[in-house]
Amino acid sequence: MTVAPYRPEPATARRRGGVLRVVAPTDAAPLDPSCAPASAAPFVRLHTRQLVTWQTARDVRDWQAVTPVPDLALEVPSTWNAGLGASHRSYVFHMRPGVRWDTSDRRPVTAHDVVRGFKRMCNPVRPSPSLAYFASTVRGLADFAIAWAAEATHRAGDAATLAAYQNAHEIPGVFALDDETLVIELARPALDFVHMLALPAASAVPVEHDAFVPGSPEAAAHLRANGPYRVRRHRPGEWVELVRNPAWEPAADPYRRAEADRVELRLSDGAGRADAEPTDAPAMVPVAPAVGGLPAAEPVDGDGALGWALDPYLLLNLRDPVWADPRVRQAVALAVDKAAVADLYRRHRPGVPVRVAGSLIPPGNAGHDTADPYPTGDPARARELLASAGHADGTPLVLIHPHSGLGPEVAHACASDLTRAGLPTRAVGLADAAYTEALRAPATAGGWQLAVAARVPDWLEHNGRVFAQAMLQATPVPGGANHGGYAAPEVDALIERALDAPEPWRADAAWRAAAERAVADVAVVPILHRAPVAAPRRPDRVDGIAPLPPQGYAVDLTAARPGVDE
Q1: Contact 205, 128 (CB under 8 A)
Q2: Measured over all CA atoms, what is the biggest interatomic distance in the chain, rounded to whole angstroms?
Q3: How many angstroms separate the CA atoms of 473 and 466, rounded?
């Protein structure tokens, strides 16, 4: 994401205000929070609020920068303030006074609005990509989502029908005692639950949103804000204009600001190259799904940093019968020359540390391991496995990739490696929105056997599930990042063991074991681990740049001050 202010006629002085212009991926725009991906959090926080949030960091190594702080809630529940029960399964939140909706009556944001947000993330039309996290954690939420999806198979998907179901059914573990008090009960204690509450999916949602289908252009154009900005104009897939929200009170929001008068998001579908962005663009924020899309970014503390990314990796669509024989999958893992991809990254992204990856979970994340069951770049051994499997050349495999970042280069390198090893492969580039849809619904978005993808952690503490659960668990609840349809009872059991673990070290061991098994099965092919990156601290003509480490070290756009002439 390139942050660039509006540039009027040359002048000498600066003042607060002005226009902040941002180039953002289409799927990361500040649209309906109920279905926004975690990567959209830097944009969603412009106009929404959650029970907890993150604070910016002067020093990204400061532990406080990765610990949630109270947002809509007055306090983060704990045993010390009596907000967390002794079983660690019952959380009580008291709503912060003074937070109001951008409506004609400027009514307060209540606990009922948070309940509505939890329900809406389960909608069957466009469920939240984070739904699997909450479904495996919050009491009764999985059953609520599954029942709603079953009901939707023989009901219309219009806004009125969706709202009627939502408002007639309850999630047993999420309820309001009154306007100011919210209770969330868990199915199991969760080390990372408070971190999950900072995701866009956990945003409060006003009743006005019931009039629109989640994720629709109409919903995006009629968002009601409780953050520092509100959407004034919106053209789907092209741009969004946000202006200051008159209902927002700075005294009731300790962690956001509103430095710019206006924020303009120019949405890019990835058809243009990241390297082709203006060379004077002063800041860059990494946002999935772009692979290697990190120009104008600086590494964060190298080896000691939290939150390395799996970027890129090769995803296999295991629904396709071509992968039925494990030897064919193993041939893919052996064919890819990971060292060559690492050299490609070093040429195009100098200064950003990368490592050849053998494990699914990168360094700086819970459950990381250095094991690598498949050596890199061994086409001769790959051909032997294909011969023993009786695999015959047929229609070339389709390898999809995003147009943005280094997606094309990585895809063509992998396609060449696979073809040389005896698996003819054709790289197909997609605009980011089409690429995301192809991953989300592979059966309906065109046939593909392989995809180049990236995975950036959604939070930084106790975060094994953002890789192992999201990418590997077979679940009837939609959402997550198991785009290849991997299903292994042993891995699912290890994931459940990790989720049930009361101590971090036990959870880490289970996450590690689940990831090792999946890599051995070639559910995915890890290619590189990439160090986290952040925007430069003092880009040209933009002050107030501060990173939000748990949001991919993204810029806090509410605090960015564009240069303005007097």
Answers
A1: no
A2: 74
A3: 11
Q: E strand or H helix at 264, and its extent?
A: strand 262-268
Distance CA 398, CA 103 (A): 48
Residue by residue, DSSP assigns 341-368 as HHHHHHHHSTTS-EEE--SSSPTTSTT-
- Token digits for 24? 């953002």
pTM of the entire predicted model: 0.90
Instruction: Give the pairing type, strands 52-53 and 69-70.
Output: antiparallel
Distance in angstroms (rounded) separating the CA atoms of residues 200 and 35: 8
Residue range 236-256: mean pLDDT, rounded: 93
Are 260 and 562 in contact by the 8 Å Cβ rule? The answer is yes
Both tokens assigned to 119: 């329900």
Classify the C-alpha dihedral 549-553-556-562 as positive or negative: positive
* Short-list 472, 394, 398, CA closest to 435: 398
For residue 123, the Cα-to-chain-centroid distance in whole angstroms is: 18
Burial class (CB within 10 angstroms; exposed 0-12, middle 13-18, buried 19+) of 233: exposed
Mean per-residue pLDDT over the chain, rounded:
87
Report which of 278, 129, 294 is spatially closest to residue 202, judged by C-alpha positions.
129
Lowest mean pLDDT among 64-68, 270-274, 530-534: 270-274
Length of the chain: 566
> What residues have CB less than 8 Å from 343, skipping those under 6 apart?
none
Question: Which value, to the nearest 10 degrees, does the dihedral of the CA atoms of residues 57, 60, 62, 65 take?
Answer: 50
* Structure-token pair, residue 276: 């082709």
Give the β-pairing of 298-299 and 283-284: unpaired
Q: Is the pLDDT of residue 436 over 90?
A: no
Pick from 283, 194, 260: nearest CA to 550:
194
| Tokens read off for 394 | 């047929």
Other beta carbons less than 10 A from residue 563's beta carbon: 18
- pLDDT tens, position by position, 126-146: 999 999 999 999 999 999 999
The single residue listed with the structure tokens 């292994």 is 488
Q: Which tokens in the block code for residue 128?
A: 């939240």
Helix (H) or strand (E) holding 285: none
**DSSP string spanning 497-510?**
HHHH-SSHHHHHHH
Strands 533-534 and 181-185, how do they pair?
unpaired
Torsion of CA 134, 175, 84, 226, to 10 degrees: 80
- DSSP secondary structure letters along 197-240: TTSGGG----GGGGGS-TTSHHHHHTPPP-SSEEEEEEETTTEE
HSE on the CB side for 304, CA within 13 Å? 5
Yes or no: say if 417 and 335 are a contact pair by the CB < 8 Å rule. Answer: yes
Q: How far apart are CA 438 and CA 422, in angstroms?
A: 26
The three-state secondary structure class of 178 is strand
